[in-house]
Structures
1.
Amino acid sequence: MVSNFITTEYGPIPTDWDIKEIKNIADDTKDNSFIDGDWIESEYIEHEGIRLIQTGNIGLGFFKDKSSKKFISEKTFKELKCKEVKEGDILICRLADPIGRSCVVPNLGTKNITSVDVAILRPQNSDYDIFYINYSLNSPKTLNKVSSFASGTTRQRISRKNLGAIRIPVPPIKEQQKIAAILSSVDETIEKTEQIIEQTETVKKGLMQQLLTKGIGHTEFKDTPIGEIPLHWNFVKLEDISEKITKGTTPTTYGFEYVEDGINFIKVESIDDNGNFRPSLFNKITEEAHEKLKRSNILEGDLLISIAGNLGRVAIASSEILPANTNQAISIIRLKEKSINLDFLYYSLKGFAIEKYIKKVSTVGAQPNLSLKQVGEIELPLPNIEEQNKITAVLNSIDLKLKNEISKKRKLSKLKQGLMQQLLTGKVRVKINENEEVPS
């Protein structure tokens, strides 16, 4: 290897690397090596037969096998002269999101075709590692370049001609294989972490259903509007245990604009599905606006629940986000009873029974919404504080595991992005064998 570099649209790359147009990576000794899929009208769709791989099956570097599948018959395949997609082909999506994302076709156990908005790339096996090419196609720099050649107003797409003219850096085959192996090992770890997250979320859902309605160690139960609960539990409305249930308003209603720096202003999108705040999505208002909107000043320990748009997102206001305010899409619930565990109430509001209630009573217009009256009428099973604490401890422990695994996944994804940036442009060279020095 050598350590000299040449200048390209990707920045400097090693002089012993090539930079190739996508269309020239195709195996020109075989037919159908860089083509589009087939236009399949709805009348040809069947419940079994030859599988139609759709744009939704193409993830950012991986194949997404969904439960919902479409097929065509062998007869249709022959009549329309469809092109067969084979294991090891690279499928490149010519539509967002993002345009140009690709995946390697796995062994699907069926005969397959794909849709017209997908380009099929069949590289020359002796010169190209399909997994390296796939990683290179999904790198941020390549995707940005593909996006710059896209066109369309309502739905952007790139033509196969323009896609084929995109160039990517290509090292010698052995280096391609080593780079792909390194990135694949990170992907495997990410996949295992995703599986743990999915399994943990399933366990959490089951525990919530059990603990929030059946409690711990009870043998006697009573009927309530949400089903059986332990005999000695209370059944209360949210308004009965709250000092205040209110909501905010839009600052512009009172003539205030958002500012660059100031008091945090929380919207529905500022809270994720797991009850975490997303500070990067906070708006900011002035202290004057915060004082004027005093009704919706948020205090530490307030429960926030979204009541418009994405209904039922719940979070507990912590000191880290204060001072803060909110708009009319979020209800503020301030408890009057100190004998209620905040985390327990948070989990209760995230439970299946409340989700079912929200779906039942919400008004559907331009966007679904709940009134403050409907929020106050939410009915909750409520054990004594000791049992609340025990239930909360169990659910907190599983939430901590989830949080750690999600954090691990983020770090791995960041590591992968860094490796792609370094390895796919030759900024960092890989060893091909033990005796070989790594160029600087």
2.
Amino acid sequence: MSNPYGHKHQRLRRLWQAELTRLGSLPCGCGCGKRIKAGEPFDLGHGVAVMHGGDGTDSRPEIPGHNRANGARLKNGRGAASEDWW
């Protein structure tokens, strides 16, 4: 398995950062309905987790706390969170 946070991940982050700057805001990729504004920190959330065979190509900007909470749930064997927990 390749490093999911290597060159490809950094390139994708730069592309999303440019899109965020261009549009001014983007919806959080986790589906919570909140928006990430230009200049705010964001993580790239994976549609399909790396541990489930994802390669990061489906990554979208997510609010850091949402992305990391979903990652912790997956790591702890509880699956990804549903949209209604936040």
